[in-house]
Amino acid sequence: AKQKGRNRIQFTQADMNERVEEELFLSQELVNALAMNQLRVAYQPIICLGTLGVAGVEALLRWQHPDLGEVAPDRFIPLAEDTGLIIPIGEWVLREACRQLLAWEEAGQCCPRVSVNLSVAQFRDSNLVSRIVGILAETGIPPGRLCLEVTESTLASDPELAQEVLGSLRRVGISIAVDDFGTGYSSLAYLRQFPLDVLKVDRRFVARIEEDGDDAAITRAVITLARELGLKVVAEGVEKNGQLRLLRQWACSEAQGFLLARPLWGKDIDLSRLLSGLR
Ligand code: C2E
Ligand code: CA
Ligand code: CA
Ligand code: CA
């Protein structure tokens, strides 16, 4: 990119071509990633702040490319969404997550719930609900153990569809979380319009609750709002002890973040021993 005029950065044609080529390359590589066994699911524990036990885990997709190394989800998920690959990939993540839950169970460990991210493209897939119900039946996971995370923009992009899909999922017994709560442009009205179970306070707010009065006020308000509406609230991106202390003081129900646990491979998580250090 070249500096042009006053503080304006202009991307040259060459930069643009390079970006487009890189995305095209990644998209093509992604087509084979599933078949080539390059995808894995990591699990990040979500901690109950009352008991400091594991309330659940969030399934997070990982792509290990043979030449490029690990490609970050923020880079490849948007491509998977654009190409429609997120539909088979998302289904695979869900099946993997259900299998992991069973594997823990067989090892004598209990994970109360598994949360799986759902993208807007999956939402528009008319077979979504029957596929999910099929995977639950196939693996024998009770629907109440599954939570699906959707963003505000997914809800806002087609509210009628969202209401219908969430309604069906809810009737089956699956719970619904709003991811990155407070960062979208949707109105608070949807909190009563949609059947929801969990609000996840985005880590952009949580990051500065110790230093920034506004971020602290927003986080406290979301916690109160969730409680009054009978929803659970998960604080995301907890990295510091001071943040954890405040969140417990504000009676936030659950938290997730590097301080508590990083995303790990299923076999490396010991669900019973996790937080001995914090007790
Ligand atoms: P997300 O759903 O908001 O997931 C939480 C992200 O925050 C994860 O990034 C996690 O590793 C990161 N994180 C957790 N604790 C901390 C912390 O204390 N500090 C910081 N700085 N980060 C923390 P990750 O795994 O890179 O995923 C990024 C995004 O990619 C996710 O954001 C989600 O939107 C998307 N994603 C990941 N897996 C899937 C998937 O299977 N399906 C779909 N549709 N999207 C996915
Ligand atoms: Ca999420
Ligand atoms: Ca999030
Ligand atoms: Ca995010």
From TrEMBL:
Highest taxon listed in the record's lineage: Bacteria
Record domain EAL: where: 23-277
Designated name of the protein: EAL domain-containing protein
Origin species: Natronospira bacteriovora
Residues of the full protein shown: 469 to 747 of 754
